Protein 1
Amino acid sequence: MKYRIALVPGDGIGPEVCGAAAEVVKAVSDSFEFNTYLAGGCALDKFGVPLPQETIDGCLASDSVLLGAVGGPKWDDVPNHMRPEKALLGLRKELGLYTNLRPASIQPALAEACVLRPDIAAKGFDLMIVRELTGGIYFGERGRNEAGDAAYDTEAYSVMEIERVARRAFETARKRGGHVTSVDKANVLETSRLWRETVHRLGESEYPDVRLDDMYVDNAAMQIIRDPSFFDVLVTSNMFGDILSDEASQVTGSIGLLASASLGDSSRGMYEPIHGSAPDIAGKDIANPIAAILSAAMMLRYSFDLSKEADAIEKAVTDVLTDGLRTADIKVPGQEDWIKGSEMKAAILKKLGRE
Ligand code: NAD
């Protein structure tokens, strides 16, 4: 029996990079079958909604979801509830995905693209941010007073919400460097004090083999710039994770390289590059497919426990970069001999033994 993958290419460069990722998965394993579903602006055009029921049903019937990106200027003026980005929130909700995993690492071959001090960049880093995705201040009660001159947003977390994301962080650390840093603002916020207590209780009772420490979010933001090699796995709330994961991705130098996973209780996840639909370069064969390809590698590792195949894809990516191959987004200033997105995909497939 084959595993079923729902491909949701979306808009802009989504179909280019998602297609490349699917080809790479096929190159390392014949255990998968793919079905394609529409979401985002393309679904709005065809079905009048950004997330058709057919797409929800198809994803729910699949073993995992590989997504490209959604959105673009064509749909900028549609009513808020019809915006293409609503498809992402809808899919997360329908699939019960409450944890976001975002790795950020610096490939030695790309150290020159890293914005950190050269001696720090040369040390390299490889961290994973585990962010709570469906709670906290983004989903809490909010409002304004009658005069409209004061507003509030509410941060709220339950022990259950903290435990389930912390468990994912500890499990992830066991597959990596065995170190979790819990990020909070426990010197000020009551939710952070509950967060810290809960993470420690879980760590001590279920994961004594994983090293656990705490860091205030302001210190963590500084540490990512000062020396990110301190970190292995960071676990944090929705808003702190949103900010820190963007910061961590920027220090690596290119948005075209970074993958992400959204996970829930089951092995099914939704895997997608962190970049958007890049309408400025869509259809020009310029988009770097690596972020989508590395998202597919995450899918093999986290949804299907196919570590050997995931390692092979990650090694193929490292090898093409070490060979000096560069798409436009990761070329050094002045470099003339950059390659197209399809050529990058072909080079990765070649490393995997597929011409
Ligand atoms: P973006 O990530 O699409 O693009 C930012 C810049 O990075 C652009 O210059 C783009 O050309 C470049 N870029 C992005 N991916 C690249 C790749 N793989 N290779 C080479 N260059 C790449 O962000 P944006 O321009 O702010 O947003 C464009 C659209 O995407 C908007 O409609 C936005 O809402 C949507 N968006 C979607 C997602 C998602 O689907 N998860 C995430 C962010 C933005």
Note: The pocket of nicotinamide-adenine-dinucleotide is lined by residues 13, 17, 69-72, 85, 88, 255-256, 272, 275-281, 287-288, 291, 329 (CB under 6 Å).
Protein 2
Amino acid sequence: MIGKIALITGANKGIGKEIARQLGAQGMTVLIGARDPERGQQAAAELKGGGADAYFVPLDVTNADSIAAAAAQVEQDYGRLDVLVNNAGISADGGPSSALTLTMDSLRRTYDTNFFGVFAVTQAFLPLLKKSPAGRIVNMSSGLGSLAANSDPNSPYAAIKPLAYNSSKAALNMLSVTFAAALKDTGIKVNAADPGYTATDLNQNSGPRTVEQAATEPVRLATLPEDGPTGGFFDENGPVAW
Ligand code: NAP
């Protein structure tokens, strides 16, 4: 993995920072995408202190100018991108079961980050990924985005139905399948990862899993060999039902 360039969005904390740490430990140069300069620089410095070749890249995934500037910076500094992890995500439902009370503003804000942001960042970085001999895109989805799990009354997720978050991740899964199909004749693989319910700020640190565990599958998908899958949805146990 030495010499490879990876960009992780929303990498200043949580699972994204841990993905950056693990990819850095494998020898990749890791670009810490973050919307807040102080938080981004701090995370990059921390990872650098741990031995990673880590750099902060200003990137707000909801801002077209910021995305364009980040792509221009990576182009100028490296001329290509090997790995893009679309990790930045928010949960703005305001409750676990919100279809009846969800506001249009919360729905739009969620989609701005979790879906439109991924679309915009992916399109902006595709020219650089195409310059890689083996581009890899990993989209951070969730088991909560699984239509199969949501429609099964016996699923552990049956009672957890924040409409904005869950539907944004279901849409992200479709984005993953669709980009994978569009890129099937290139070396670029596109997969969706479910990190599992993990203690981070996203859920007020309520999840039982650690960020180290959560990063395992996205890191595997970011480092897939040439004969690895594309257009799939995986957790560490294998394929997840759509
Ligand atoms: P987190 O600790 O809240 O981290 C989210 C990251 O996204 C932060 O760095 C945040 O930056 C960044 N971010 C939010 N909006 C952004 C924007 N507009 N531009 C750039 N960065 C932005 O959450 P996490 O649990 O690590 O979540 C990471 C991903 O895993 C998300 O996509 C989430 O949906 C997914 N996931 C998490 C779980 C879980 O149980 N934790 C389960 C399944 C899937 P700031 O610090 O500036 O806010």
Note: The pocket of NAP is lined by residues 9-10, 12-16, 35-36, 39, 59-62, 87-90, 113, 140, 142, 195, 197-198, 200-203, 207 (CB under 6 Å).
